[in-house]
Amino acid sequence: MTSSCLENYKTYGITVYSDNERVTAREFEGVYLSCKHNVKKEIGARVEWKKIKGTSVSYVYLNGFFVGNFKDRAEILHSSIQIKNVTRKDSGKYRCEISAPTEQGQEAGEIEVSLLVLVPSSAPVCEVPISALSGTVVELQCKESEGVPASKYSWYRNGAILPENPLFWRFKKRNISYTLNTTTGTLLFNPVSKNDTGEYYCEAHNKVGRPQRCPAKRMQVDDLNVSAIIASVVIVALIMASCGLGVYYAQKKGYFSKRNSSMNMSSKYRVTESEKDFKHTKSFII
Question: Which positions fall inside the Ig-like domain (predicted)?
């Protein structure tokens, strides 16, 4: 009798597995993390869940209770867990640990389930120069940091999308030269030309939500005005020459020498007055 009862409680090793080891869910939705095992119900398995993020390990489910911020939004289903209203902070690896008595003693098994919480792209921040000179290198930047997975970027000019490969424009006989990086969001003109003038905006998308864009900004590209530069140089040269002639004329008329002589006379007068004061004081003492 005793022998047959013990036979029913024998467990030859513990096997732990999951129906889905890579789980994805949109932010603020519910998620199911599967953990199954071969321990018989009569024996009673001990179930623990832990969250692993980098080198940090924290409890999720311990001694029959959920821990931390999982208390009010998670439930245990046999040995699996259901989490409600997941956020991006819930992303990470979760370890399900099962332990139970066996014929050889206490044994344990475990399985890891990864959770990736998907977050839509947010409105990107765009940097577009207001003006630029033709023939120079100009870079437009676009970036957003909320989307999970990371966003891809597209640039638009005057409402039309710019192809990732600028060779497309050669078929339309347009002289446009640029480099578009859809991962970093940079649009590089090397060099920029007057034909690149227009309104630009960027769009971020990661297929989780709707694409998001930044406000359109106008970039004005002008040719270098050589005539204006030469005229400016000539005007500055004329001003400097006029100043030089004025100084020369003043020196020739003796304005600077007269000023120096008046200053010398003033200093002599002050010395004379001080000498008089000294003599007067001396005579008073005697």
Answer: 33-114, 120-227
For residue 82, what are the contacts with CB-CB under 8 A and spacing of at least 6? 30, 31, 32, 33, 74, 75
Q: Is the peptide bond before 129 cis (omega within 30 degrees of 0)?
A: no
230-248: pLDDT as tens digits:
656 557 666 776 776 766 6
pTM assigned to the model: 0.67
Cα-trace Rg, the chain: 42
DSSP string, 6-57: HHHT---S--EE-S-SEEEEETTS-EEE--EE---TTT--EEEEEEEETTEE
185: left (phi over 0), alpha (psi -120 to 50) or beta: left
Q: Which residues contact 181 (CB under 8 A, 6 or more apart)?
A: 153, 187, 188
Q: What are phi and psi of 87, to 5 degrees?
A: -125, 170
Q: From the centroid of its chain, how far is CA 203?
A: 16
Helix then strand then coil, in percent of the chain rounded to 5, is: 30, 35, 35
List, in sequence order, every residue forming a beta bridge with 101; answer none if it has no partner.
106
Indicate left, alpha or beta for 198 from its phi (over 0: left) and psi (-120 to 50: alpha).
left
| 71 CB-near residues (< 8 Å, 6+ apart) | 65
Token digits of residue 63: 């001694």
Q: Give residue-wise pLDDT tens across range 198-219.
A: 999 999 999 999 999 999 999 9
Beta bridge partners of 131: 220
102 DSSP β-pair partners? 105
Closest-CA residue to 191 (of 153, 135, 233): 135
Distance CA 237, CA 93 (A): 72
CA angle 40, 41, 44 (to 5 degrees): 95
